[in-house]
């Protein structure tokens, strides 16, 4: 039994009814749709320091990627992910992050952050835009100092950029590079330039990377002790030049044992990788007097 196809066809609208169209005010202008396709009137535009660019019919382009204006639209993209400070990774990776130049990113938020300034050798505050940037970006001053305190401090002269000078000689010289924290070869023109200019590699290393030493206790190995407790403590690792956590058993051990990481940092931050030389004190005056007595023996004096 065949079914009549006309019975399954939906009824058509009477010709007298007008076609249903959205009002003109609810549609986006073509210019705005082509330049900012993902706009939403329900997403409030964030304040920015510069004047917004008009994209048509009052719609505004948000610097972070969204728009605000009249009319409905799809759900806006999520706000940019805030750059988090570098996690506790190896000291070499943390050092590379701290030596990066500050980068506020392409967005225009005004977020206070901290970065390590390799020229002043200290943590400085800067305004972060809110997205992208690099790993030299810390939430607090304390986070910055904990991550970057192992970087060696160099004299002011070694923080200058290598300058070949205006002359045209071809002299092999060495300069200290703050980005790599190493002495590197460069070609000096023969005149002017600056003080970051050394004739040989060893002179550059001796002046810009002096080996600093700290207290002897910072060079002691990790010692958990002799008892059976499990107390979190910190010790200074002279090989990695960083403070690390360990479990202290409660008794015994050595002096390389700190209650907090900050205490470890404050005591051992100047420690290098080599133990300092210990010069035993000598009494020079006593040695001289003994030599005189041996060469010229005392005469017996009955009045004394």
TrEMBL record:
Keyword Signal: yes
UniProt-listed Gene3D superfamilies: Pancreatic trypsin inhibitor Kunitz domain
Record localization: Secreted
Stretches the record annotates as Disordered: 1-32, 47-84
Major location (coarse): secreted
GO biological-process terms attached to the record: blood coagulation
GO terms of molecular function: serine-type endopeptidase inhibitor activity
Ranges annotated as biased composition (Low complexity): 22-32
Listed Pro residues bias regions: 11-21, 71-83
SUPFAM superfamilies, A to Z: BPTI-like
GO cellular component: a single term: extracellular region
Keywords: Blood coagulation, Disulfide bond, Glycoprotein, Hemostasis, Protease inhibitor, Repeat, Secreted, Serine protease inhibitor, Signal
CDD domains cross-referenced by the UniProt entry: Kunitz_TFPI1_TFPI2_3-like (cd22615), Kunitz_TFPI2_1-like (cd22616), Kunitz_TFPI2_2-like (cd22617)
UniProt cross-references to Pfam families, sorted A to Z: Kunitz_BPTI (PF00014)
Domain BPTI/Kunitz inhibitor, chain residue ranges per copy: 98-148, 158-208, 218-268
Assembly mode: Finds in a complex with ABCB1, TFPI2 and PPP2R3C; leading to the dephosphorylation of ABCB1.
General function of this protein: May play a role in the regulation of plasmin-mediated matrix remodeling. Inhibits trypsin, plasmin, factor VIIa/tissue factor and weakly factor Xa. Has no effect on thrombin.
Annotated protein name in UniProt: Tissue factor pathway inhibitor 2
Recorded name of the encoding gene: TFPI2
């Amino acid at each position: 039994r065949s079914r009549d196809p006309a019975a399954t066809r939906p009824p058509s609208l009477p010709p007298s009814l007008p076609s249903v169209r959205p009002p003109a005010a609810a549609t986006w202008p073509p210019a705005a749709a082509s330049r900012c396709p993902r706009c939403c009137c329900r997403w409030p535009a964030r304040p920015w320091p510069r004047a917004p660019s008009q994209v048509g019919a009052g719609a505004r382009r948000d610097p972070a990627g969204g728009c605000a204006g009249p009319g409905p639209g799809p759900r806006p993209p999520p706000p940019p992910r805030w750059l988090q400070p570098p996690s506790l990774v190896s000291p070499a990776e943390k050092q590379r992050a701290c030596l990066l130049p500050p980068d506020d990113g392409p967005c225009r938020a005004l977020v206070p952050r901290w970065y390590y300034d390799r020229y002043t050798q200290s943590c400085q505050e800067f305004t972060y835009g809110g997205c992208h940037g690099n790993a030299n970006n810390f939430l607090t001053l304390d986070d910055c100092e904990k991550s970057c305190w192992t970087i060696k401090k160099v004299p002011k002269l070694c923080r200058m950029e290598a300058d070949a000078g205006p002359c045209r000689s071809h002299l092999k010289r060495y300069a200290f590079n703050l980005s790599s924290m190493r002495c590197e070869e460069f070609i000096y023109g023969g005149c002017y330039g600056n003080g970051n200019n050394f004739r040989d590699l060893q002179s550059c290393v001796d002046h810009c990377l002096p080996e600093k030493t700290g207290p002897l206790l910072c060079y002691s190995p990790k010692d958990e002790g002799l008892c059976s407790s499990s107390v979190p403590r910190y010790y200074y690792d002279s090989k990695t030049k960083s403070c690390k956590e360990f479990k202290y058993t409660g008794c015994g051990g050595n002096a390389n044992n700190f209650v907090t990481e900050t205490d470890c940092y404050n005591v051992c931050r100047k420690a290098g990788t080599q133990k300092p030389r210990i010069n035993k004190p000598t009494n020079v005056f006593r040695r001289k007097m003994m030599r005189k007595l041996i060469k010229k023996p005392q005469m017996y004096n009955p009045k004394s």
